[in-house]
């Protein structure tokens, strides 16, 4: 009703303005590692990368030298993240040189420098993420109703998990997510070369964008194989291959001058030293570890192979579907399926990685109204142990209440459906009935866990019992969502999904 009264353009402006206001509000809260020497946290890592890239020669950015101690928050993201750090470091240096002074700026936490750092994340959203979401809305829902178009924008820009991680905890995930969303929009609109370039930018900003690689590979391969002749099929594959190689070569050029330079960057990007998982992440390995001691039963090499096999096995069905029958919205569904496969089963998963399956789910909000309402709430809940440690409990509660007030009453409840006479899609009806029940059950359990944690002391033998319960409960929700998306790709009528 409000969207119809405002009109499409006014509703778009209001949603974007609200999303920016919430980002500024969350930015007033603490961040990862605030006032916690000697290593502080992710905020200090991002600040330190600016310090390094501004003061250290580019060929030494990923190398341990007297001017670059890799044991203190050494760069471990791909080159575009490093270039971004240099750009923002140069900008902040103009306003507050002490914030990135070599060595003496470690743990630098003045209010003015915090404001500059927070602004850099907001600017990243304005320059990359918001335009990419608008492009996706135009490509995937050009002919949708005004309410549906507003719902896409609202779900993608205001879902609480991404706002809390980037603007609370402090990261720049929305840059890589924005490049990936832009790539999806470009590919879906037939601009395959542009889409390939944008996805390469996403991969080279954060390596976790690899979660989407199977989806883009399968979809683009399916498009190439749909060409009429063998020559055109091979030509299409080769063209995209050259585009990818050329884009990577341009991005990595400063580090390709020597073999040790490129290998040094690659070594910094591989997280194998960190083990199977850290902290409490709502994936299969962490959730089942109380019953199966994976780290004690298997060597690191065995665990890496197990994770790779389980991830590939889980991602494969959606990939095969897109190779066989690529489609616009099928690409987004495959991105969600592939990202869930990586999040649930891959090696060394971080809590923030749940943002990757959330992006395509929220971009498909009109087609997946229950999931688009439900999954951001579950994802935010799953990250509560991390957010609590960062001092973001108040922001967590506020954003979840905001999200619930605007989405859950209308989206999470089962709708009255007109049953078609004769044979009907029993699976579709079953899913539509079960998902809202699961969501209500989850909400009740989540509130119960928070209430218990607020009034009860955990047993001395199990000091992290509440965090573990949050992890297991969230994992079950994510696993259910992943299976639902697989069924959408394979069981529902293709045209209705798209």
Task: Describe the fold and architecture.
The chain is globular and about 65 Å long. It has one domain. The C terminus is likely disordered. The protein is mostly helical and 498 residues long. Helix 10 packs antiparallel against helix 11, helix 15 packs antiparallel against helix 16 and helix 21 runs antiparallel to helix 22.
Summarize, please.
The protein is an all-alpha fold and 498 residues long.
- Total domain count: 1
Calculate the mean pLDDT score and round it: 90
**Protein structure class:** mainly alpha
Q: Please provide the count of β strands.
A: 0
Low-pLDDT parts are 412-424, 493-498
The radius of gyration computed from the alpha-carbon positions, rounded to a whole number of angstroms, is 23 Å
Q: Please provide the ordered H/E string of secondary-structure elements.
A: HHHHHHHHHHHHHHHHHHHHHHH
Distance between the termini: 25 Å
Number of helical segments?
23
Question: How much β-strand is present in the residues?
Answer: under 5%
Shape: globular
Fold topology:
Layout (H helix, E strand, L loop, with lengths): L1 H5 L1 H20 L14 H14 L23 H17 L15 H30 L5 H13 L1 H11 L2 H16 L3 H12 L9 H13 L4 H23 L6 H11 L14 H5 L5 H4 L2 H25 L3 H18 L9 H9 L5 H14 L1 H6 L3 H19 L14 H30 L9 H26 L3 H4 L1
Helix pairs in contact: 2-5, 2-6, 2-7, 3-4, 5-6, 5-8, 8-9, 9-11, 10-11, 10-15, 10-16, 15-16, 16-17, 16-22, 17-18, 18-20, 18-21, 18-22, 21-22
């Amino acid at each position: 009703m409000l969207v119809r009264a405002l009109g499409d353009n006014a509703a778009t402006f209001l949603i974007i303005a609200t999303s920016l206001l919430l980002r500024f509000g969350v930015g007033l809260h603490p961040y990862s590692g605030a006032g916690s020497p000697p290593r502080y946290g992710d905020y200090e890592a991002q600040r330190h990368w600016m310090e390094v890239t501004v003061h250290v020669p580019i060929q030494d950015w990923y190398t341990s030298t007297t001017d670059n101690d890799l044991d203190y928050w050494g760069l471990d993201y791909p080159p575009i993240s490093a270039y971004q750090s240099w750009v923002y470091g140069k900008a902040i240096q103009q306003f507050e040189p002490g914030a990135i002074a070599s060595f003496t700026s470690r743990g630098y936490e003045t209010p003015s420098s915090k404001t500059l750092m927070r602004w850099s994340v907001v600017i990243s959203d304005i320059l990359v993420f918001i335009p990419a979401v608008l492009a996706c809305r135009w490509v995937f829902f050009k002919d949708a109703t005004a309410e549906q178009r507003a719902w896409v924008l609202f779900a993608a820009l205001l879902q609480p998990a991404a706002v809390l991680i980037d603007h609370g905890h402090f990261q720049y995930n929305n840059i890589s997510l924005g490049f990936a969303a832009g790539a999806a929009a470009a590919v879906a609109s037939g601009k395959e070369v542009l889409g390939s370039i944008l996805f390469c930018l996403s991969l080279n900003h954060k390596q976790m964008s690899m979660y989407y690689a199977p989806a883009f590979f399968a979809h683009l391969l399916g498009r190439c194989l749909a060409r009429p002749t063998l020559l055109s099929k091979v030509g299409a594959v080769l063209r995209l291959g050259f585009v990818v190689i050329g884009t990577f070569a341009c991005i990595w050029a400063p580090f390709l001058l020597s073999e040790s330079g490129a290998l040094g960057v690659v070594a910094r990007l591989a997280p194998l030293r960190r083990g199977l998982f850290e902290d409490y992440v709502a994936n299969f390995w962490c959730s089942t570890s109380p019953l199966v001691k994976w780290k004690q039963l298997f060597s690191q090499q065995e665990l890496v192979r197990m994770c790779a096999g389980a991830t590939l096995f889980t991602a494969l069905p959606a990939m095969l579907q897109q190779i066989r029958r690529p489609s616009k919205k099928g690409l987004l569904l495959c991105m969600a399926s592939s990202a869930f496969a990586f999040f649930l089963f891959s090696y060394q998963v971080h809590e923030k990685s749940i943002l990757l399956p959330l992006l395509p789910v929220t971009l498909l909000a009109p087609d997946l109204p229950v999931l688009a309402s439900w999954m951001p709430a579950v994802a935010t809940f799953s990250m509560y142990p991390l957010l609590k440690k960062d001092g973001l409990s108040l922001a967590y509660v506020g954003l979840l209440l905001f999200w619930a007030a605007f989405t859950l009453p209308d989206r999470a409840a089962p709708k009255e459906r007109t049953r078609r006479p004769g044979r009907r899609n029993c699976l579709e009806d079953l899913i539509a009935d079960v998902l809202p029940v699961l969501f209500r059950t989850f909400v009740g359990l989540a509130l119960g866990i928070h209430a218990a944690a607020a009034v009860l002391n955990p047993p001395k033998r199990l000091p992290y019992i509440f965090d573990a319960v949050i992890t297991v409960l969230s994992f079950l929700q994510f696993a259910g969502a992943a299976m639902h998306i697989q069924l959408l790709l394979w069981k529902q009528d293709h045209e209705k999904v798209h």
